Amino acid sequence: MPTIFTILKFVSVNHRPLASAQVVVTDVQGKPNGLLSDLVHDLINDALLFVDLGQIETADELIKQLHDHTPLPDDVLDEYGKILTEPCFGLNVAPQKDTIEIIVHR
After folding, report:
1. Quick one: pLDDT at residue 50?
2. Does the model's pTM come out above 0.85?
């Protein structure tokens, strides 16, 4: 089953990585999950600036790279690790809202 890490690694818009403003995490009914969306936004805006996802194969490897190359504290990296391994049940592209919805079970 794909995870949020998988989505961030393989989904692009116009041949560019997803921008945090484009990503919303929702449940299967389409209700936004603000906490998970905020974590994904932080991850995209802050952490992914320091690594090349194309060179990373797993969420654990990403967390190790972030640990080695950023001053992010362990508790933040733990939260990133949890969100990266969150199972995804699909994607919903909403072009009228310019968003990509990552669908999770929560």
Report:
1. 84
2. yes
Is the distance from CB of 47 to CB of 80 less than 8 angstroms? yes
CB 32 within 8 A of CB 24: yes
Say which DSSP state 5 is in: H
Q: How far is the C-alpha of 92 from the C-alpha of 28, rounded, in Å? A: 10
Task: Report the number of distinct structural domains present in the chain.
Answer: 1
Domain span at residue 44? 4-103
3-state secondary structure 40-51: HHHHHHHHHHHC
Q: Is 88 helix (H, G, I), strand (E, B) or coil?
A: coil
C-alpha count within 13 angstroms, C-beta hemisphere, residue 19: 8
- Give the tens place of pLDDT for each residue, 55-102: 999 999 999 999 998 888 999 999 999 999 999 999 999 888 889 999
Q: Please provide residue 85's backbone torsions phi and psi, each rounded to the nearest 5 degrees.
A: -95, 5
Q: Which residue's structure tokens are 């999770």? A: 104
